[in-house]
Amino acid sequence: MENEEMDQVTVGQVAKKYGVILGAASIAFFLILALSGIYTESWAGWLGFIVSITIIVLAHNSFKADGDGYMSFGEGFKIGALMSVISAVISNAFTWVYISFVDNAYLEPIKEKAYNDMVEQGMAEEQIEQAMEFTSFMFDPTMITVFGIILGIVGGIVVSLIVTIFTKNNRPEEI
């Protein structure tokens, strides 16, 4: 019985493994969007959620398959939340390096799109100028990294909560 328990996979093991996988997938997704030039398209960001959902589901399935076949809501949520932290740090560190050292002009199309959107909305030139000052502050590589980590964690937690509702499989004694 003791050996059987020692062979059980832990929440931390699964979360670390799949957090790194999600981080690597996020980097690959970022590079595909950046190199194809479609990163300014609003729909492209939603594809990242599909990647996250898929990898969280895979992590939950792995936990159940490598364990006793069960996963409580708490276990599933912890896996997804820890994965989100690991992935957010890895992918946003890469993003910072990419924007800071590889492609300094990466943010220019985003700023240009923001400007054009404000013009289309009919904003006054003075308002646009003020908004662009704030936009330039927010689109600094460090600010993008900080907010990317925060949003990655918060978004990952929300996705984890939702996915876990569907992937949990309570042990009979927990029902």
Coarse structural class: mainly alpha
Distance between the termini: 24 Å
Assign a percent range to the helix content.
over 70%
Radius of gyration: 20 Å
How many helices does DSSP assign? 7
Low-confidence spans:
none
Quaternary arrangement of the chains shown? single chain
Instruction: Compute the average pLDDT.
Output: 90
Give helix and strand order, one letter per element, not per position.
HHHHHHH
Domains, number: 1
Strand proportion: under 5%
**Largest sheet properties:** none
Shape: elongated
What is the tally of beta strands?
0
Describe this structure in words.
The chain has helices at residues 2-6, 11-36, 42-66, 73-102, 108-120, 125-138, 141-167. It has one domain (8-174). It is elongated. It has 7 helices and no strands. Helix 2 packs parallel to helix 4, helix 4 (73-102) packs antiparallel against helix 7 and helix 5 (108-120) runs antiparallel to helix 6. The mean pLDDT is 90. By secondary structure, the protein is mainly alpha-helical. The two termini are 24 Å apart.
Compact overview of the structure:
It contains seven helices and no strands. The protein is mainly alpha-helical and 175 residues long.
What attributes does this structure have?
single chain; 175 residues; mainly alpha; 7 helices; 80% helix; elongated
Secondary structure elements and pairings:
Blueprint: H1 2-6, H2 11-36, H3 42-66, H4 73-102, H5 108-120, H6 125-138, H7 141-167
